[in-house]
Amino acid sequence: MDRTVRILVGDTGIGIALEDQSAIFDSFRQASPTTKGVREGTGLGLAITKRLVELHNGSIGVESEPGQGSRFFFTLPLTSEEAIEQEIEPIAGLTRAKPLVLVTSHEALWRDETSRLLEREGLQTAAATSGGDALSKARSLHPNLILLDMELSGKSGWETLHELKVSPATSRIPVLVVSPMEERKMATAIGAAGSLMKPLSQPALIEAVRKTLHSERTLQILVVDDDPETRQLIADVLADEGHTLRFARNASEALRILADTPVDAVILDLFLPGRSGFDLLGEIRATEKLRLLPVLILTVKDLTEAEQEMLTVQATAVLEKGSGWRPLLLDELRRLAQAGSGRKVLIADDNPAARELVSEGLRGHASTIIEASDGREALEKIWATRPHLVLLDIQMPEMDGYEVLRQIRLDPSLQGLRVVALTAFAMQGDRERALDAGFDDYITKPVSIAKLKAQLEAAFPEGRL
Hints:
The protein contains 18 helices and 18 strands. By secondary structure, the chain is α/β, with parallel strands linked by helices.
């Protein structure tokens, strides 16, 4: 039997007339003029709340009489503790020497041949024979990629894909679907990384798998070291990881690159000609757009206690050049890549309920959702995380949406970033003003899931990551 929980909040205010009760959950609707001396709202609070409750399969309502106060209530389905524990089961095996691909198909011959092919390419494989088996192994193994045959017996491929993408434990694992028909639009709409048609050629399969794995793990890395042999050694160590490397021999070159080029991480030697690595690290942390940039120290220097304390605060990791630094560097970069992989969307709004509504709508369609509560925080997080799509409220404290947009458009490293204006007020001429200012689009709150998906499709026209 399904269980529910009912939450009720009552007041002793002026109450709401029966004829107004159905309308108060609509956008921009209020039951009566605001009480004297109280600042007017936008008429969005209950509309946003209704959307949030319905996104969780619940219902909301009100009981009220004029002069007798009001009682607002909502009902939600109750999840058992056992189900919650299954969802947050610890993830195992994230750090691997080789990526793991979970090959899912009820056809033993196709499953075995595909696994052997991937293993010859240097990948690890695990097999799942059904949708249920795939869900179980995805939770326990947390593979780097799932290859999903849509012609499964029992639980269908579409059901399996949907469950993989709605479960917090598996939603970020890339899935490549394999089908006898062209299914790209449907598959990417549900959250797949891509789609392949049967019969598959070996080169097409390998290319798709490599592309998906690299899209999950690729970083833009700046290596700052004046020793050419060390630079080449780092390049050799990272050769199979799919990262893009830029090189600088001193602090001045590094700062020039950081000013004009998007960088996800810096590998920094402390011994540099002119300004030292310590000086460069200090300048990076003093620069607003770079202060959260991951910096990995790779050095032969015998650090003093004071230097160790400083680097603990300012650096992401400190690695000593010696026999064991290579796997440690790979682990750090894989951790960073995993944290920043997939579709990244930043939501900037000073209204927590509005941010929550947008986040709920994006869940399952974006792998990383970043939130900011004011314009200045939004700009800092855009510089630090490099999202693919920004949803920007126009009216925010500290710095409004127009000023944040102006700063984005002035930064060459953010060229091409899609920025969409959000507003609670749809006044005549506002859309034209926003587009003229440089916003890519303009949508009004409360935002529907259909509108959010349309923005994702515009930011990722080919379903790419």
